[in-house]
Backbone:
């Protein structure tokens, strides 16, 4: 009745707030202290740095999860606990659990083909031999999702790729790491606020 009277006398009800806009940001890596500082875990490091002052990771199903607010958006940060080769299981679960559309998913992972710290954001693509991406492709049934690849370099001898990605950062890389992590965090925020095309234009810069 109250609602009817408001409409009758030209006093509209206050507009309902828009539904919460959420993004699932997944950093790929392997759990365990032995992997914490390895190149393959750059995805974990990016999310840890992003959440450092605004959110806390807590254990949850298939991973550790933190939620942070940024300019009206909610970023659901996920570090899968499934190990790299089963990352897709965690991604599929949390997309459904949080009711997040596929276009609001970003995967953060390492890339051997890029110089250390270089960012490349793409809206789709093959797994490029990355087992984490391969698992995600299989679990969600598509390769058309946003991924941010971060360069880890390729200073390894022929046949030593596995040892290289599971090795720890050099002292020089460790010194440069904070600025690289900050840049990756800004790229994630750009994706959530100004859109993927503008984020790509802003952050996909050529290496010096």
Residues:
């Amino acid at each position: 009745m109250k609602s009817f009277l408001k409409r009758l006398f030209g006093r509209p009800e206050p507009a309902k707030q828009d539904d919460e806009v959420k993004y699932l940001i997944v950093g790929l890596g392997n759990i365990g202290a032995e992997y914490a500082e390895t190149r393959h875990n750059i995805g974990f490091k990016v999310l840890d740095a992003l959440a450092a002052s605004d959110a806390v990771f807590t254990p949850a199903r298939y991973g550790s999860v933190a939620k942070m607010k940024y300019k009206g958006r909610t970023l659901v940060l996920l570090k899968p606990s499934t190990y790299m080769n089963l990352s897709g299981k965690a991604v599929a679960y949390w997309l459904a659990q949080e009711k997040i559309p596929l276009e609001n998913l970003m995967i953060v992972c390492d890339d051997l083909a890029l110089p250390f710290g270089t960012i490349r954001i793409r809206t789709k693509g093959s797994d490029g031999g990355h087992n984490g991406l391969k698992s995600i492709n299989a679990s969600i049934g598509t390769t058309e999702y946003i991924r941010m690849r971060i360069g880890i370099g390729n200073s390894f001898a022929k046949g030593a790729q596995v040892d290289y990605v599971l090795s720890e950062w050099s002292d020089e890389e460790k010194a440069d790491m904070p600025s690289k992590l900050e840049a990756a965090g800004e790229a994630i925020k750009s994706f959530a606020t100004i859109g993927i095309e503008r984020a790509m234009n802003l952050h996909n810069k050529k290496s010096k």
